[in-house]
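tl;dr need the bound structure. longer version: we got a ligand (zinc ion) that a collaborator sent over and nobodys looked at where it sits. i said id run it. heres the input, straight from their email, havent touched it
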Amino acid sequence: MFCPECGSTDKKMIGDICIDCFLKDFKIIEIPENIQVTICKHCNSKLEEGKWSESNLPEEEIIYRALERNIKINDEVENEIIDLEIEQMKGSTAECVVVAFGEVYGISIEETHDVNVKIIRTACPTCSKVQSGYYESVIQFRADNREIHPEEYEKADEVVQRTLNKQYKKDKLAYCPQISKLKEGYDYYIGSLKSGRKVANALKEEFGGLIKESPRLISEDKSTGKGLYRIWISIRIPEFEVGDFIEYENKILLVEDIGKNRVVAVDIKTNKKHTIPWKDTESIKVIRKMKDVEKAGVISKSPTTIQILDPVDYSVVDLELKDNQKDINIGDEVDIIKIDDYYYLLN
Ligand SMILES: [Zn+2]
Ligand SMILES: [Zn+2]
């Protein structure tokens, strides 16, 4: 056969031309000379085909993968081997060499490509939001009818931080760009609504109370008419605290435990325990605080009663003993609480 390009007549023909002429223009792989990779300088996320995705790969690995993704291997090549190497970094550009080996029509060939991979560092949409202090929800930490104690603020800060740390693995907007310390309570600004709700629930779990959400229209998308809302979530912790005396369903109860779903309180007359669900706690009235408990010395005792001196006017007061109080003795000091002019002996 005669090769129309080189005129030779004794070589293997590939189509219309000889193998040598065929190989002159043959390439094992195709790869662009310049490749760009966009990554987020804050969280290392990577932009690919218009989409940001999380990537915790080291820079080198990002470069290698960019090379791999851009290589197209010619279908006619067999047994190909492709070596990737980063020669050097020049600023944000990696100067790379791609060496390809392969066989085509039984002949081994090798070729080298110089490729520059430029890394563009920018901020992904999530990190841009974080940078600008973006937030979707505000948690209003309040107490019903009383001031919040410093220990409660301290605890609340800790609960908020702990919840956000836990959420951050799944939600990059689980952060608190701002805390407003107001007289009536703290406002915690939370990046996402999802994490905001988690924070509110964690606070409820710690302190009890009631949660209420109120959305506020922030702006409106003129083209779609859709509103952009920010959600204010108030968590109102109760006025009563563990150790306080409350009135509930005409009974006087001592609060023993406050949980996320219920309040446990014990009747100070009968020792009977009551579990009050949160939805019913609105009717609870605080009648005495823990600090109102007084102490008195026992001056005499019968099998069913003791006598103490009224701490205010030193008059003698008879108190009935409950079953679990029978081992109180003369000379002991007991806890009492005065409610409606009547003294109750506490356990
Ligand atoms: Zn030829
Ligand atoms: Zn980012």
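gonna send this back to them w/ a short note. Residues 3, 5-6, 8, 17-18, 20-21 surround zinc ion (ligand 1) (CB under 6 Å).
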